[in-house]
Amino acid sequence: MKKILIVEDELPLRKNIKELLTRHGFTPLTASTLSEAAHYALTHKDIALFLLDVWLPDGDGFELCRRIRQNTLTPIIFLTACDDEESVVKGLNLGGDDYITKPFRTAELISRIQANLRRQESLNAVKILCSGDIRLDRRQCLASKSGAALSLGAVEYQLLLILMQNAGRIVKREQFMEKLWDASGKFAEDNTLSVNMSRLRKKIGTEYIETIRGFGYRFRQPVTESLE
Ligand code: CA
């Protein structure tokens, strides 16, 4: 059952959402403050989706979203009374995936949650990613260039996969670090990222990966995805 973290400081609403999610087969976790939620986000790596209230007693949901995005690309839905355009834009710019204003209909909340989870699943279901002369096959963990296999190290392969899955978007250094930690089971040093990225560039060609100084990297060529 998928875990969803509900971050909401109003007790009745928190309880209602919790019951609603349980009825629909989810496993809800709840937090009433930003610090409690941040702790959950760090200690529960298997959270499938975050539902974030914007106004919290010890900060705002935007700050929380920023912190969550440093570590993960898990879907984030804002749930809030502030439906002004500025708030919506701010939330989405910080990496939020969706925005629901209170009061909301329960059926709408559930269908938005399901839609966001489906989108995430379809990202994971993609098996082949192609861009220009580069082809990455996730079933065989194999990357090739113009039909010839590239000999990529485990970290280089992982970097290429993350970049291609997020083509056109900046992936922050912190997001890579988190993923690399997952892949190798030990914490990667910051320098490891730069070294591996530079090796990867030499192998695939310099036209694909762009460095965004102070932030991270972006795969700048279009990527096509297929399920097989
Ligand atoms: Ca609130």
Notes on the structure:
This protein is of the alpha/beta class. It has 2 domains: 3-121, Rossmann fold; 128-226, Orthogonal Bundle (Arc Repressor Mutant, subunit A). The chain has helices at 11-23, 34-43, 61-69, 85-93, 106-125, 154-165, 173-184, 190-204, and strands at 3-7, 27-31, 47-53, 55-56, 59-60, 76-80, 98-101, 128-131, 134-137, 142-145, 148-149, 170-172, 209-212, 216-219, 224-226. The strands form 4 sheets. It has a 5-stranded parallel β-sheet with strand order 2-1-3-6-7, with helices on both faces. A 5-stranded antiparallel β-sheet has the order 11-10-9-8-15, with helices on one face. The protein has a 3-stranded antiparallel β-sheet with strand order 12-14-13. Strand 13 and strand 14 form a beta hairpin. Helix 6 (154-165) packs across helix 7 and helix 6 (154-165) crosses helix 8. The protein is elongated.
Topology:
Blueprint: E1 3-7, H1 11-23, E2 27-31, H2 34-43, E3 47-53, E4 55-56, E5 59-60, H3 61-69, E6 76-80, H4 85-93, E7 98-101, H5 106-125, E8 128-131, E9 134-137, E10 142-145, E11 148-149, H6 154-165, E12 170-172, H7 173-184, H8 190-204, E13 209-212, E14 216-219, E15 224-226
Parallel strand pairs: 1-2, 1-3, 3-6, 6-7
Antiparallel strand pairs: 4-5, 8-9, 8-15, 9-10, 10-11, 12-14, 13-14
The protein binds calcium ion (CA).
Calcium ion binds at residues 9-10, 53, 55-56.
